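User: Structure please.
Assistant: Input sequence and predicted structure:
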Amino acid sequence: MKTARTLLAALTLSLVPVAATAQDFPNKPIRLIVPFPAGGPNDIIARLVGQRMSEITKQPVLIDNRGGQAGVLGTDAVAKAAPDGYTIGIVSASALVINPTMEKVPYDVTKDFAPVTLVTTVPEMLVVASNVPAGDMKELVALAKAQPGKLNFASAGVGGLPHLAGELFKLTASIDIVHVPYRGAAPAVNDLLGQQVQMAFLDLPVLLPHIKAGTLRPIALGAPKRAPTSPDVPTTAEVGMPDLLIENWYGMIAPGGTPEPTVATLNRIANEAMHDPQVKQKLADQGLTVAGDTPGHFRNYIASETQKWARVIKAAGLATGK
């Protein structure tokens, strides 16, 4: 009996630090990795949500921009971080769904990450540079067909959803346009503005200021309905391409092995932050729709998106093997 009481006491004491740690989280700064350069959609979302998370937790949320390989490099940094909840990431479909389907990446999506929550969804918009002589989808397709292999489309990197959007556009419209990848949305937009490339499908938030300024010309929105921020821009369905539906998404992840109570706390804090009325409105002003779900639902969503885009990758002949 004495031995049993001794073992019980030892077990109880061994559990105290774990419980205290879980209840005390977070008690130091959180590093929020953004796997793209500053200025892109990931960065906009991370800064808005991260600032509110910092206010909720009374701990700094430090933005760490790590661009490269359509988000793979920064996402890998999350995978290799300590699984204690103090390093997390805001990542898009490219790093969790598209690139792992197309080629070998340095992480296993199902094992190396703990999904926290889907944060936002955003449609892709097709825009052209100001010097492109096309004012609508019909004129753009006609221009591309008249000059096969001569027009370029920019993306935020090989394997990113903007890349897949361009490939799906090629398949849908039966046109030959050339992919030009960049290290993020911001540099892609810079070359669109500089007329070095002719067109791009990119996330609405990064395009809005330039559309409003008249420096980029919108052609169509890859969504079922028009965006409140761009009510004059028709949807792809309205211009005769109902299958050209392109919606990007951004989610929060932690390293695989992060304790479930810590993931649950991050989920609660992130959902509270993104549903804050001011944060929600600022995201809406950027063309972003706040999501928010459970870790389990987000994990299932990643799996379903993987199946969806695998079909496009196969049809476009983009898989390079693993």
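The CA atoms of residues 28 and 220 lie 45 Å apart.
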